[in-house]
Structure formats: C-alpha cells, structure tokens
Amino acid sequence: MNDFSKMNSVYAEFFDEDTAPARSTVQVAGLPLNAEMEIEVMASLD
C-alpha cells in the first residue's frame, strides 16, 4: 500500500483512463518469495 501511488503512475503510462482494465488492490502481511506485489490479470479472447 505504501507504493500505491507509484503503481498508479506506472499503470497510467500503459492504459488510458477511459479504457483501463478493472483492477483490485489488497493489502496482505506478505507474499510468497518476498514479492513486492502481485498482479491479477483477466483476459478475453474474442
């Protein structure tokens, strides 16, 4: 959560505000392998 604003800045570099995919943010005590973040992705192939 301490890096939330940094993540938003990077996210904005790749996605337009009107077409950005949905996302979620969850704070946890720790992630496997001491990862700093976890990113969840959903995709649809038409």
Description:
With 46 residues, the chain is mainly alpha-helical. It has a domain at 1-25. 24% of the residues lie in helices and 0% in strands. The chain has one helix at 4-14. The longest helix has 11 residues, at 4-14. It is globular, with a radius of gyration of 13 Å.
**Strand portion:** under 5%
- Helix/strand structural class: mainly alpha
Put simply, the count of helices is 1
Mean pLDDT: 86
Query: Which consecutive residue ranges, at least 5 long each, have pLDDT under 50?
Result: none
Taken from the alpha-carbon principal axes, the silhouette is globular
Helix content range? 10-25%
Order of helices and strands: H
Radius of gyration: 13 Å
Short description:
The chain is mainly alpha-helical and 46 residues long. It is built from one helix and no strands. The mean pLDDT is 86.
Fold topology:
Blueprint: H1 4-14
Key attributes of the depicted protein:
single chain, 46 residues, mainly alpha, 1 helix
